[in-house]
Amino acid sequence: MWRVLHQIFLQRQISKIVLVVQICMNTAKTFYAASIFFEILYQFGELQPEIEQKQKYAVWKATDIRKALKEVRKPEPGPPGGDPDQSISSGLSSYTYVCSITCIS
C-alpha cells in the first residue's frame, strides 16, 4: 500500500518537474524569438541603442535559461550579473523574474 502511494507521489512530482521544464523552455524560446525579431529590424536601418540593448538581453536571457535547464540550476533573474537595479526595462526584468521563480517551484 505504502509503495503504491509512494509511486503515485513520485509520478506527480515528476509530472510537475516536466511541466516546469516545458514552461521554462517556452520562455527561452520566446526570448530567442524576440532576439530574432530585433535582428530582423536591422534590415530596416540603424537601431536605437535601447533596442540594441534589448536584443542583446533577449539573446543572453534565452541562453541563460537553456544553460540553467541543462545544468539543473536556477536561471539568473534580471540582467547579466543579476543586478535588478540595472535592468533594461522594468517589463522585461519582471517577466524574467517570474520565469526564474517558475523554473524553481
TrEMBL record:
Location relative to the cell: Endomembrane system
Predominant subcellular localization, coarse grouping: membrane
Keywords: Membrane
InterPro entries reported in the protein's UniProt record: Vta1-like (IPR044538), Vta1/CALS_N (IPR039431), Vta1/CALS_N_sf (IPR023175)
Domain of life of the organism encoding this protein: Eukaryota
Stretches for region Disordered: 71-91
Keyword Cytoplasm: no
Domain Vta1/callose synthase N-terminal: start-end pairs: 25-71
Cellular component aspect of the GO annotation: multivesicular body
UniProt record, GO biological process: late endosome to vacuole transport via multivesicular body sorting pathway
Official protein name in the record: Vta1/callose synthase N-terminal domain-containing protein
Organism: Zingiber officinale (Ginger)
